[in-house]
Specification:
Length: 969
């Protein structure tokens, strides 16, 4: 640290009180200390080795890795709602430094994304140019807040030296498979060795060595954790790209642009995240996350136990998953999702004889009916398709399957209420026990067979039922037969649990099915038809076989293109296919490469999709650890130091991760998946990326709308007699989000200019509990500004600029001040540790007010400890006052004060004395008073004696020091 004292260079104000703390003084102080911190590397967190190695004494201290969720550098810049989490982590990080920790706290930018690409399409500006300009603006805004980031560790996901490793991780995932026996990922080379040796067989009767290269690639593609497949996707013609399920709104439109989204089948890259479903679920128990977030992840993963049942059809089978195999006798028809790949296979040329007219949809052939219904279903979102209130629609495909338990022929339909995204995309329909099946059966005049004895008095005649009956407490009925395989099974009279066990055993014994576990989680769609994203490090040979690039060819950088937009289409035209921006650069797409596989130079075609914007945020915590390492993802010793498992962190991970609850599923689930793959392959010691998660609330603001429903500038709205007016016209007011489009955004720059960054920091932390949303009120900011003015006044003479404190021995400070000081020290320490920043500020305010009211100069030792209490919250003014108090070192690394327990305990406490449960007296007693002494004092009190009126005492209950309860005889 430098021995220079920037405080000495502070200019003198021409104010009537020339050294009063003003906005102008705050601005000067803050800019000067920010420059000092940058020049001195005040917030540099040393690594145990490498180019960021530093002070070995600091490295030897306990470490603390504190992170914010990646910000996206928007062109609109920050409003005051954005820094809430950043200020909170900064306060917590500063407190941790002052309590003896080596703290890693930094911030990078999640800079790939659709907004920059859309701006490029509109203006022709390269996405990198606009994104870097946005980052510079955001860096300036964040710097002004005095955030204590280690800037040596910052980066952006668009930096080639960063996405080199994003591509490298993709290759690790591509070159690995999940071993169900070992319950971990293993290199694909180990799987190939099993095929080559015959330890593991391949499909069909041929050996591995008999397969062509393309056939081997197809086999491995069934195992790889990153694989390409033809699968149903969410195709958005209006954007010209496919979308993940999470990017589609509930009404079946794109989250960005609000275009229609259709189901289509395209060849896309996927991540086999489903292989990790059990581990992603089980390991949640070891994480210190909000229960609401854990619940959302559990629901998204959606683990359910049941059975796989095979329904024979035309020499093959349709497989269903059911959680209620005990109701198999009640399955009177089957339903496939419209996108199910077996639909075409089992659809005949003509309707079977006797086909019910209501089943055909009015079409001449099954093929026509299926095609028409598929087109209808493709225009609906998953939510629309599963809506409980809508009429059930569907069409018979013209084929029958066999119910294995009784040999009955059941018709096979397609219907939009069945999704490919859950189970096998096929269901056995039990209309007596499922409301959707019940409604469908009624609409299509299908049998409804009662197989669970109703307990609500409705009887077993389903023709009289108004709805389905489902129960886990009733007994099974009408469920006995010889079985289609010749081996019978009887469930009649059994309760549900026993019936499930018996039928599952029967399914396994007869080969008609098996007990199994199913997950709602689907594999992660990993392709985007965009320009502004990480290129895939994959090339295709002339046979269409995918080959990974060697690590020596990374990073594969984005080429220049003339048009940044994917080809878009009529938003309502579902019969279209993607055309990506990268595909138009022929020189980049078609290349001759030597991949180092011994085959020499060959012609290849590059993958022209790019990775989704989630990719870069799946591993960025690792790059913070070792940001300049060009040889490996992260040095193992450095990763172990910052993120390795330890007591209380069984899976390792970041010590504190703060961000919005809106990332409960996507980002967090994806990052956990990548961490587990890297852990399995031995690249990291931490199986989880984030040990402790904290979700900050939202800063809200009033939105004012005119009669048309259009937002008007909030700053120009006037309030008169409880109503609100804009340019003379009455407007409505509703509390909601803050944003530029809502015309209610307040920028941090505005507040910093008017009051200073320290005031903004205090106000945002004092507004309420960090995890609760709260309304912004610019008028209330001044309260925290006045707190800083009183603090300044307690230390500095506003007229002379000299210190106003006095040197007083601790023993000569009055007891009231010592109690106020140590109570504040104790309370603020506990509050900062628990991230209760609003109550910490209240305690600082209370102490500051005590000193103000006490009058006279403040003892130096009290002022110093007050400044140290303020330092994490308002670092600029604390740094300034610390230097004025004569210290040469930065307040950032000073020890946080420790309270003297003797002063924390109250001198007296109030003891309530009750007679027959009613309060009769209150005594001021010492906190340490014994039960016997307290009983004596209570019985001797004049009010108690009067209340007893000479009556005897049967019992005295004493809870020293706060309660005495007397029971008269």
């Amino acid at each position: 640290m430098s021995e220079t004292n920037p405080a000495a260079t502070a200019p003198v104000s021409a104010d009537a009180a020339p050294h009063r703390y003003t906005a102008a003084m705050a601005a000067e102080i803050e800019a000067r200390w920010q420059d000092f911190w940058d020049a001195e590397g005040t917030y540099a967190a040393p690594n145990p080795k490498g180019d960021l190695a530093g002070d070995p004494e600091l490295v030897a201290k306990p470490k603390k890795f504190i992170m914010d969720m990646f910000p996206y550098p928007s062109g609109a810049g920050l409003h005051v709602g954005h820094p809430l989490g950043y200020i909170a982590t900064d306060v917590f990080a500063r407190f941790q430094r002052m309590t003896g920790h080596n703290v890693l706290h930094t911030l990078g930018f999640d800079a790939f994304g659709l907004p920059a690409e859309q701006y490029a399409v509109q203006t022709g500006t390269h996405p990198r140019v606009s994104t870097e300009a946005n980052m510079e603006n955001m860096k300036s805004q964040l710097r002004r807040l005095g955030l204590g980031h280690d800037k040596r560790r910052s980066f952006a996901t668009i930096d080639p030296e960063y996405y080199k490793w994003t591509q490298w991780i993709f290759l690790q995932i591509f070159n690995s498979w999940y071993d169900d026996e070992a319950k971990k990922a293993r290199p694909i080379t180990e799987l190939v060795a099993q095929f080559e040796s015959g330890a593991r067989g391949v499909r069909g009767d041929r050996s591995w060595n008999e397969l062509t290269e393309a056939e081997r690639a197809d086999v491995l593609g069934e195992y790889r954790l990153a694989y390409a497949s033809d699968a149903p996707v969410n195709w958005c013609p209006g954007l010209g790209t496919v979308l993940a399920n999470e990017e589609v709104t509930a009404d079946g439109r794109s989250e960005r642009g609000n275009f229609p989204v259709f189901k289509s089948k395209l060849r896309q890259w996927n991540m086999r995240i489903t292989a990790y479903a059990d581990r992603l679920l089980d390991d949640l128990d070891q994480l210190d996350w909000p229960e609401a977030i854990k619940l959302q992840q559990r629901n998204w993963i959606g683990r359910s136990e049941g059975a796989r049942v095979d329904f024979p059809i035309d020499g093959e089978r349709i497989t269903v998953f059911t959680t209620r195999p005990d109701t198999l006798f009640g399955a009177t028809y089957m339903v496939l999702a419209p996108e199910h790949p077996l639909v075409e296979k089992f659809t005949p040329d003509a309707w079977p004889e006797g086909t019910h007219d209501a089943w055909t949809g009015g079409h001449a052939t099954p093929a026509e009916a299926v095609a028409a219904y598929r087109a209808q279903a493709a225009s609906k979102s998953d939510v629309e398709r599963q809506a409980e209130a809508k009429d059930k629609t569907g069409v018979f495909i013209g084929a029958y399957a066999t119910n294995p338990v009784n040999g009955e022929q059941v018709p096979v339909f397609i219907a939009d209420y069945v999704l490919m995204g859950y189970g096998t995309g096929a269901i056995m329909a039990v209309p007596a026990g499922d409301q959707r099946d019940f409604e469908f059966a009624r609409a299509f005049e299908l049998p409804i067979r009662c197989i669970v004895e109703p307990t609500d008095g409705r009887g077993t005649d389903t023709s009289t039922w108004e709805d389905a009956f489902a129960s886990y407490d009733a007994k099974i009925i009408n469920s006995s037969s010889a079985g289609s395989s010749g081996e019978g099974v009887t469930l009649d009279g059994l309760p549900v649990v026993e019936a499930k066990e018996r039928i599952t055993e029967w399914l396994e014994r007869t080969g008609a099915g098996a007990g199994t576990v199913n997950f709602r989680l689907r594999d992660w769609l990993f392709s985007r038809q965009r320009y502004w994203g990480e290129p895939f490090p994959i090339v295709y040979d002339e046979d269409g076989t995918a080959h990974p690039l060697p690590a020596s060819m990374l990073p594969l950088e984005l080429p220049e293109v003339e048009d940044y937009s994917p080809r878009t289409f009529d938003p309502d035209d579902a019969d279209t296919e993607p055309e990506t921006p990268l595909s138009r650069n022929e020189d980049w797409v078609n290349v001759t490469l030597d991949l180092g596989d011994g085959r020499g130079p060959r012609k290849y075609r590059r993958e022209t999709n790019t990775m989704p914007n989630w990719a870069g945020s799946c591993w960025y915590e690792l790059r913070y650890l070792d940001p300049h390492n060009g040889e490996q993802l992260v040095d193992p010793e450095i990763e172990q130091y910052w993120m390795g498992p330890r007591e209380g962190l069984p899976h390792g991970g970041v010590d504190l991760y703060v961000g919005g609850a809106e990332h409960a599923v996507l980002h967090l689930l994806y990052a956990r998946f990548w961490s587990k793959v890297l852990f399995d392959l031995g690249h990291v010691s931490s199986a989880e990326p984030f040990h402790k998660l904290f979700n900050q609330g939202m800063i809200q603001a009033y939105v004012y709308r005119d009669a048309r429903g259009i937002a008007v500038p909030a700053a120009e709205v006037e309030e008169r007699d409880g109503a609100y007016y804009y340019q003379g016209e009455k407007v409505s007011r509703l509390l909601g989000k803050m944003g530029k489009s809502l015309k209610n955004a307040v920028t941090p720059d505005e507040i910093c200019a008017e009051y200073g960054a320290d005031t903004l920091r205090l106000y945002e932390m004092a507004m309420g509990p960090l995890d609760v949303s709260r309304p912004w009120d610019t008028r209330a900011v001044v309260g925290q500004f006045r707190l800083l003015q009183r603090l300044w006044r307690n230390v500095v003479d506003e007229n002379t600029g000299e210190l106003s404190v006095v040197d007083v021995a601790e023993g000569d400070i009055d007891a009231g001040t010592l109690r106020a000081l140590h109570k504040a020290v104790d309370g603020v320490r506990q509050d900062l540790e628990g991230m209760r920043f609003n109550t910490a500020i209240a305690k600082v305010t209370e102490l500051n007010n005590h000193l103000t009211k006490a009058g006279g100069p403040v003892p130096r030792s009290v002022a110093e400890r007050l400044v140290l209490l303020v330092a994490p919250l308002a670092p600029h003014v604390a740094e300034e006052l610390w230097r004025k108090l004569g210290h040469e070192s930065s307040v950032v690394h000073e020890d946080f004060p420790v309270a003297d327990p003797a002063y924390v305990v109250d001198e007296t406490v109030t003891c309530v004395v009750q007679i027959k449960g009613k309060v009769k007296a209150r005594l001021e007693v010492a906190p340490s008073i014994s039960d016997d002494d307290l009983e004596k004092a209570a019985l001797a009190d004049e009010k108690v004696v009067a209340a007893l009126g000479g009556a005897g005492i049967r019992k005295v209950i004493v809870r020293a020091p706060k309660l005495v309860n007397i029971v008269p005889a």
